[in-house]
Amino acid sequence: MLSVHRVHLPSEIPIVGCELTPYVLVKCADGSVVSGDVIELNPIRGHLLGYKWYRIQSDKKVAVCSVHPTEPATLQCLMCIKAKLPISKSYHCTSKCFSDAWQHHRVLHERAAVAANENGPDDDEVYGRLNSNASATSGAMYPAVITQRNGGETWFEVGHSKSYTPSADDIGHALKFDCFVIDAETKLPIGVPTSLTTSRVIPAPSPTPRQMVAVSGNDISGNPEVASRSFSGGSFTVLSYNILSDMYATTDQYSYCPSWALAWTYRRQNLLREIVSYGADIICLQEVQSDHYDDFFAPELDKHGYQAFFKKKTTEVFSGNANTVDGCATFFRRDRFSHVKKYEVEFNKAAQSLIDAIVPFPQKKTAFNRLIKDNIALIVVLEAKFSNQSNENPGRRQLICVANTHINVSQDLKDIKIWQVHTLLKGLEKIATHADIPMLVCGDLSAVPGSGPHSLIAMGRIDPLHPDLNVDPLGIVRPANKLTHQLPLVSAYTSFARAGNILALEQKKKIDPATNEPLFTNCTRDFIGTSDYIFYSADTLTVESLLELLDEGCLRKDTALPSPEWSSDHIALLAEFRLKPKNRR
User: What's the pTM value of the predicted model, to 2 decimals?
Assistant: First the structure.
């Protein structure tokens, strides 16, 4: 007879909006143990599995801390209530928690005050606020049914599938999962269910939205999606974001991050919410696993109007599951752009050609091990569906070339990083010779400002005395005068250093005056620095606005990234560009 051997969840802390799918082991009559679902269409010896989910609701209502959502709240910020902020933001577990979070928390009050002054009384003020107990999900497809009362607890049946996604109604309550064997013929349960009970459901942490800050013209700030849509004509927004592959998001590497916040079921929803909130016209993501691209990002962003391209890394070095190989994904809005051409750069192929051409046979194996790193670049040429407001050549196509890459190379192999960046730039130069086309180079270079790869892109050359050129056993970066390119590329975020409005001046505090680049785009317990960039061709594009940078102090309240609020160890970069009229180029 079939029996349930074991059930468990990847994370015992459920979060609103994040699907829970227990891992179920089934023991067959012959003693073998199998995993997976046993459904009506494919029963095992006349038996299948049934499931039920319950909300265990205590008569005592429990509020949870907005900073530490696994802790019960003991105090509430009354200023949040007065400002009509989401009530979940007002709770704190201790006075120390409230004090430590104040620098970040007061920003909520300030922005609520600005919004109130700009928008006037809201609908809640005019028509009266909803009862605080009103459910945001009262129209759920599976209505909760009271099935049992036990002392001060009530059990509500909330689902009968293997998976369940907690709703706002579940916040503060534990969930119970029952798995049981069913007779396929009678449809009746057999024996006692195998059960598990979760911790209390917590709300998904919601970071304070980052604002767009103008760096030219009038001061424009506010919701990124609204801001990016407020520009007319030949403007568009570009997002670059290393989202931290699940394969690398281990508890060993990020022990300071709660395990539930590292779980992919949570991180994917939090990342998607963040990415969609920016409303970018072009999105460049790095460290996207192949299976996550196919199963999640491509279909989910398709719902928001994006077309997608993906290039996974090559696998000469990689030895894991082929489905989890990460790569670069580029998305663009169908209503803003159409696809013209795609190029895929495999640095391993270029390395093999280089080895064959210049490396003597006895050294080929050593050269192969040094050069082959599986990195790639994805280049997409797009045609804009909007005008750059120029009367010159009104019927001419407006093309834009977007390169997306992750140069993931060990820090001691500086020659390989430089060579890979130079290989990419020479490819882009070939594209530029065939068309008057604006260029964008987005991604994670794993190289800090002023390093060899950064200097090569931003300056068009590397100083022959640069220390990154000191180690060159294969002779691939010497003489230094061969490391050049003619593309007029500038880092978008250096525009903060040149801007003069009040909000941009505030961002200057987060800019390194020595390089004009952000102080950091990558913040972990062991490293903080900049490795992510959006470069643009300054002869064809101007920067209109940039997404504000994050403050290190706010991130350090959770030790570092990733955290419950921000689900990658990198921060997203977002730039709004305007096409220069052709007669001004």
Answer: 0.85
